[in-house]
Amino acid sequence: MAARFSSTMRTVVVVPAFNEEQAIFRVVSGILRCGHDAVVVDDGSSDATGAEARRGGAVVLRHPINRGYGAALTTGTEWAARCGYDVVVHFDADGQHDPDEISAVAAPIRAGEADVAIGSRFLGAALALPWRRKLLIRLAVLFTRVVSRVRLTDAHNGFRALSAEAARRLDCREDGMGYASELVERVARQGLRLCEVPVTITYSEYSTSKGEGNLAKLRVGARFLWSKLIH
């Protein structure tokens, strides 16, 4: 797959997807329209997610069984490293993220100003964000500050960029949604340079229904905190 950037730094967008046949073609088309390469990790979907992603123009990697959000990102990120990409952007499959903002999220990495850049909906915009979800995210921000000692304005935002070297050093192992918390903790532990970039998150009935419920998100946080206490 040829890189579409004119500079020598090669960037790819990794999209983890599970049963996203309704949205994935539009998401991939948007990524390619903005001039970026895309790889979709079909995480054991039982629908036509993989076929729709290929129709949109993405490279598709497939897990034979559903392994989880973190596992899908790990598969895509490791593939990107093997293919020689310098910058890896993580991007959700449900249509919440704006592909026009990919370049802005990747910019601090490409400029050598940061090793990891995380999108912030609170520095940017969160359109139609349900109040319960907003409260939960605020609690997650506090949780991140307490556990990882990292001050962020947002937490568990799936829109982020990493240098290939940072991704290698972080070596995240969480298969599920705990990947986001693990990544921030490992950034702090490794002393990597972290920044936030304003992004727009647009919530829809579809994207809200696809995400984990509020109680499930709380359980993810509790499991991650327990894993820190027992190690």
Query: What's the domain count?
Result: 1
- H/E element order: EHEHEHEHEHEHHEHH
Overall geometry: globular
Rg computed from alpha carbons, rounded to a whole number of angstroms: 16 Å
Uncertain regions spanning at least 5 consecutive residues: 1-6, 224-230
H/I helix tally: 9
- Alpha-carbon distance between the termini? 42 Å
Question: Mean pLDDT, nearest integer?
Answer: 86
Largest sheet report: 7 strands, mixed
The CATH class, by name, is Alpha Beta
For CATH, the homologous superfamily is named as Spore Coat Polysaccharide Biosynthesis Protein SpsA, Chain A
How many E strands? 7
Tell me the CATH topology.
Spore Coat Polysaccharide Biosynthesis Protein SpsA, Chain A
Structural category:
alpha/beta
Strand order of the largest sheet: 3-2-1-4-6-5-7
Strand content: 15-25%
Q: Helix share of residues?
A: 40-55%
Q: Any idea what the CATH architecture is?
A: Alpha-Beta Complex
Give a brief rundown of this model.
With 231 residues, the chain is an alpha/beta fold. The protein contains nine helices and seven strands, in the order βαβαβαβαβαβααβαα.
What would your notes on this structure say?
- The chain has 231 residues and is an alpha/beta fold.
- The chain has one domain (11-229): Spore Coat Polysaccharide Biosynthesis Protein SpsA, Chain A (Alpha-Beta Complex), CATH 3.90.550.
- Helices cover 43% and strands 21% of the residues.
- It has a seven-stranded mixed β-sheet, sandwiched between helices.
- Strand 1, helix 1 and strand 2 (37-43) form a beta-alpha-beta unit.
- Helix 1 (24-33) runs parallel beside helix 2 (49-56) and helix 5 (131-148) runs parallel beside helix 9 (214-229).
- It is globular and about 40 Å long.
- Residues 1-6 and 224-230 have low confidence and may be disordered.
